[in-house]
TrEMBL record:
Gene name in the database record: gntE
InterPro entries the record matches: Aminotrans_3 (IPR005814), Aminotrans_3_PPA_site (IPR049704), PyrdxlP-dep_Trfase (IPR015424), PyrdxlP-dep_Trfase_major (IPR015421), PyrdxlP-dep_Trfase_small (IPR015422)
Name used for this protein in its record: PLP-dependent transaminase
Cofactor(s) required for function per UniProt: pyridoxal 5'-phosphate
PANTHER family in UniProt: GLUTAMATE-1-SEMIALDEHYDE 2,1-AMINOMUTASE, GLUTAMATE-1-SEMIALDEHYDE 2,1-AMINOMUTASE 1, CHLOROPLASTIC-RELATED
Organism: Sphaerospermopsis torques-reginae ITEP-024
UniProt-listed Pfam families: Aminotran_3
Keywords, ordered alphabetically: Pyridoxal phosphate
Length: 436
């Protein structure tokens, strides 16, 4: 809590005078618990009073190797000596594209961007340009970025409990998004094959893209039911729809080739971001050659002043190279599993109904009797206790997200000792949350 960290508190007061709510992304604001961080190292972040936190927020997911990772930083420092922005083809961007193509089975070609939102937005434009159609289908509770086409029925709609079961509706999660945009959007229920089949029979020929988080990581980390992603693949083939995997969270995290590799289902286009740069702002669209080549003069525009700049491509080059040399994923799975098992054991011992979803490198925790299958089920879990628990955790020096729907992440710098310490603190935090 900020009041227990006087220097951080004073700094946050200063920030709020010049930055609305003192944050540069609305998702970071957490009232008196808003994190104010001076520095990070490995699996730890430190506030302005020197208080340390074991970090499972990891910058909302990107920091896959650890904060201030020497292998990544050294490459960036060496690269920037020769200039950072040329708006011209340079060495590191080609190396990054080559790494992605090598690691991700469905990718023939790559274009680089700077954020997850950039990548999904461009992927949607590309799908529309390629198919000549306008409609896009997304899932309830999925988040694909901060722009008008996708700010509908996102995790922020949770407390509004919008629509009825089986009748998903577009709920706009930001003022300023024109209502007209909803006419370009269809909303589906996660894992609901019947509903999707019905919708596609009616509108399939007008749909440009189905965009999907292969694990519903922004809504509890819900897994696809076995065969669900393949079902989407087949439906897209039937109707000539472009299947977009939003791998912003899963890419280079759940496996070297992300969800495409893990689930063995090939998307037409994939959006990558977070883990590919270990926290540096880089993203990518990758996909089939014929679709990617629609980014052609006179056809689909993809542009950016900073896309493929030296700073971020040097970082991604080092991050992706390191992943191919070291057993990063073995380690993530090991410490992540230790954490999942430990949380499960503590909650079971305290007789708290709970479910842990996702995979060791990225998992969600919901407090509920029945196992949530879709976002609406997540809405019905014990959110009050979950939210209180997250507050007690951050007070105890465990950094997660303020939103219980968001996943926990582990990084290569977490050790088994860090996990054991986390579990001790978790149990204390849980006791406190239960008393509130
Ligand atoms: N897609 C997914 C699945 C995400 O989780 C996010 C951000 N959390 C985005 C897209 C948008 O990425 P960014 O915040 O980098 O724009």
């Amino acid at each position: 809590m900020l009041k227990d960290s006087p220097k951080s508190h004073a700094f946050f007061e200063r920030a709020q005078k010049v930055i609305p709510f003192g944050v540069n992304s609305s998702h970071r604001y957490w009232g008196e618990n808003t994190p104010v961080i001076q520095r990070g190292e490995g699996a730890y972040v430190y506030d302005f009073d020197g208080k340390s936190y074991i970090d499972y927020r990891l910058g909302f997911g990107p920091v896959i190797l650890g904060h201030a990772h020497p292998f990544v930083n050294q490459r960036v420092i060496a690269a920037i000596q020769n200039g950072v922005s040329f708006s011209a083809t340079q060495e590191y961007e080609v190396r990054v594209a080559e790494h992605i193509i090598k690691m991700c089975p469905s990718v023939d070609m790559v274009r680089l961007d700077n954020s997850g939102s950039d990548a999904t937005r461009h992927a949607i434009r590309l799908a529309r340009g390629y198919t000549g159609r306008d409609l896009v289908l997304k899932f309830e509770g999925a988040y694909h970025g901060d722009y008008d086409y996708m700010l509908w029925t996102t995790p922020d709609s949770l407390k509004s409990r919008v629509g009825k079961r089986g009748e998903p509706i577009g709920h706009k999660t930001s003022q300023g998004v024109p209502d007209l945009v909803s006419q370009l959007l269809l909303i589906a229920v996660w894992n609901d094959r019947e509903g999707i089949e019905k919708l596609l029979k009616e509108k399939g020929d007008s749909i440009a893209a189905i965009i999907v988080e292969p694990i519903l990581a922004n809504a509890g980390g819900l897994m696809p039911e076995p065969g669900f992603l393949q079902f989407l693949r087949n439906q897209c083939d039937i109707y000539g729809i472009v299947l977009i995997f939003d791998e912003v969270k899963t890419g280079f995290r759940i496996a070297p080739g992300g969800a495409g590799e893990y689930f063995g289902v090939q998307a037409d286009l994939s959006a990558y971001a977070k883990a590919m740069g270990n926290g540096y702002p880089i993203s990518a669209i990758g996909g089939k050659r014929d679709i990617m080549m629609t980014i052609a003069p006179g056809k689909v525009v993809h542009a950016g002043t900073y896309t493929g700049n030296v700073v971020v491509t040097a970082a991604a080059d080092a991050t992706l190279e390191y992943m191919q040399q070291q057993d990063v994923f073995g380690h993530l799975n090991h410490v992540g599993q230790q954490l999942m098992d430990g949380l499960d054991e503590i909650l079971t011992r305290h007789q708290i109904n709970h479910h842990i979803h996702g995979l060791p490198s990225l998992f969600g925790l919901t407090l509920s009797e029945s196992n949530p299958k879709d976002w609406r089920d997540v809405v019905d879990t014990n959110l009050e206790l979950s939210e209180q628990l997250l507050i007690e955790l951050v007070n105890a020096g465990i950094m997660t997200d303020s939103d219980p729907q968001q996943t926990w992440y582990v990084c290569e710098s977490h050790t088994s000792e860090d996990i054991a310490e986390t579990l001790n603190r978790f149990e204390t935090a849980l006791r406190k949350a239960l008393q509130k």
